[in-house]
Design brief:
Chain lengths: 120, 110
Amino acid sequence: QVQLQESGPGLVKPSQTLSLTCTVSGGSISSSGYYWSWIRQHPGKGLEWIGYIYYSGSTYYNPSLKSRVTISVDTSKNQFSLKLSSVTAADTAVYYCARRGVVAATFDYWGQGTLVTVSS
Amino acid sequence: QSALTQPASVSGSPGQSITISCTGTSSDVGTYNLVSWYQHHPGKAPKLMIFEGSKRPSGVSNRFSGSKSDNTASLTISGLQAEDEADYFCCSYAGSSTLVFGGGTKLTVL
């Protein structure tokens, strides 16, 4: 059973960079066909896809966030990470990591999410 | 790339059926049969309920079904049970390796 767990600071100051890591257990992040994703949910709002990465390093980002987002992968640690730069209060959200299955738009495993608050 | 449109809330009594709609555009739902649905109990990890519009992952009850007509996908839950009370989100492929989610629907079992 694949499990994902987000980790990182719960509080980030405005203009700084938000950094989160997702640790994958129960399966290899290098498994063929799977993409490792970040998704967020603003308080009381719907989900927003941030982007995903293939174990080879290929990345795909939401066009609306692309200029501020970097997703990277560390296959030796079975982890992938999110960096979101120049954050504002509008980036306050619960951040989820998830595995996108072989089929596009299909997230078959999710972390429980971590709340990141942007505030001075 | 706009969010897919879902009703904010729906409700039904135990045993009844409800349908949640997810309206997109010809650039996403209308073009691709790649809509998925997720059940989300607050504080827990979202759970995949439907993928590719109408397919159920192993272990998901056959009370959950999905369909699509033009730019609107739908999730139907039959034989409502108390444990079905949750938030439900849709997601669609939107081309060029991008995705879009819906705003979410809160299901209340009366």
